[in-house]
């Protein structure tokens, strides 16, 4: 029997003290099961180079056994095992990583060893987050090796005695602490394993020996099944996967039974090792509240969701898995060191997404247009957040027009000298303006979301000759700008004065123009820039609402001089003229935005009076 003190590598002590190893207790199970997988991977490595003998038919596995009554959790593997000397080296000397040592020793051999998961040598000690004491019972693969047992109660002291294990491998027994007894529930263990170990490369099993003993004698035992898929879809070559494979994987992993729009299979071996699948789910028209789910794996071990250092922020709307063994993880594998290597991986993912979009546009434009309503918010947001992404996709950004057709900006502008782009933000309230445009054979783009407000400003910045104008901000293309005579101008001034006196708003601008559509008495125009400034400040919430008031709505009431009703205003008695003028003004406002409650009440009362005058 040997006794001693655990030595601590001071260089690696600080991360332990700072974070107590891990932020989540349940990570202990991931670490211990991963260690078991590493032990098997090491053994297979040695066997592949002739340094170990194994049975070709041996079933390699990691087993998690739950002894609820005894308050024990046991993790066992049939991997490489350890001698007493190796336990002393890899366990007693904290942060002396067995995986790192193994990789260094066999780095000249083939790259199979690179799939070993552990790198820091601290994962084992996560067991003390849930256990009062921990035992290791291990038998090395080496000929004539003796089993060794290590016992520690969480202090800096340990005991080393002869072990009981008779078969090659390692058994770790956790005597669960009172405050962690939830980890003795099968449902809890199954949930944790599902979270972290669903795709480990070695089969993982759950056993409940106490339950099995309670079963009636002679009852046929069900064949145990591993809880994980050792060969997940992202580890396969794209040529080996069918469309249905991708859809089934999506349903199983993300529990989303709405089919994804399309997907990207990442399979890179150089200059870094990167595999994964990114799915484009259906996305609402408004960005707020949208949340994707991209799971990060390291050698098929789950690390974290939505790690922004690897996945660009705008891609967080997607769902998918990324597996990159080369990522520089910190001690808990929960966060990434922010270095240039990570940035290269992030840039590559962005490039692959852009390539997929341009490929769809070029080769499957009909499908691309079907997807557009669901993905345009994601693409526009990506352009706003990443100019390199914009540069890659700028030629495949499309817009729906008034005829429900999809066009690029160049297709919309054609050969026009003036690069004015008219757009509609609300097809319902702006329907009158749309009808005016359509009657003149003019077109406009449909840009209904808050994201579009920011996006058009971005496009104007990138293309300085392009100007977006909402359809209710200008009517140059739907009016007759023929030079008027002095007499006509005088009549216009008289009409303007009549309307101003009745409306009683000195700040309201009133103009008289000859619109090409004589059925419309009047329209309201709203200054594009002041409206945009208002919307921008209001979008930032209550704290910026006061700033929005600085940019008051700059309305212009345009009276249509060719409309029959406008022509007759001068012929009406004062009472009728007053009602008609106010009604024309309200109708113009309604086509721009809903009336408030007070104005709507007056509008209805006035409408009833006008109807009474007809009979």
The class by helix and strand makeup works out as alpha+beta
Mean pLDDT: 83
- SS strand fraction: 15-25%
Helix content: 25-40%
Poorly predicted spans? 10-15, 116-121, 542-551
Structure, described:
The protein is an alpha+beta fold and 615 residues long. Helices cover 37% and strands 20% of the residues. The chain has 19 helices and 24 strands. The protein has an eight-stranded mixed β-sheet with strand order 1-8-7-6-9-4-3-10, covered by helices on one side. Helix 9 (365-385) crosses helix 13 (450-462). The longest helix is centred in the middle third of the chain and has 24 residues, at 340-363.
Offer a quick outline of the entry:
The chain is α+β, with helices and mostly antiparallel strands and 615 residues long.
Q: Would you spell out the secondary-structure blueprint of this structure?
A:
Elements: E1 2-5, E2 7-8, H1 13-19, H2 27-48, E3 61-67, E4 72-77, H3 84-92, E5 93-94, H4 98-105, E6 131-139, E7 148-152, E8 157-162, E9 169-176, H5 186-197, E10 203-207, H6 209-214, H7 243-254, E11 262-268, E12 274-280, E13 293-298, E14 301-305, E15 319-323, H8 340-363, H9 365-385, H10 387-393, E16 398-401, E17 406-408, H11 409-413, E18 420-424, H12 431-439, E19 445-446, H13 450-462, E20 467-470, E21 479-480, H14 486-503, E22 509-515, E23 522-526, H15 528-539, H16 545-549, E24 555-560, H17 564-568, H18 574-590, H19 597-613
Parallel strand pairs: 2-5, 3-10, 13-15, 18-19, 18-20, 22-24
Antiparallel strand pairs: 1-8, 3-4, 4-9, 6-7, 6-9, 7-8, 11-12, 12-15, 13-14, 16-17, 16-19, 21-22, 23-24
Helix pairs in contact: 2-5, 8-9, 9-10, 9-13, 18-19
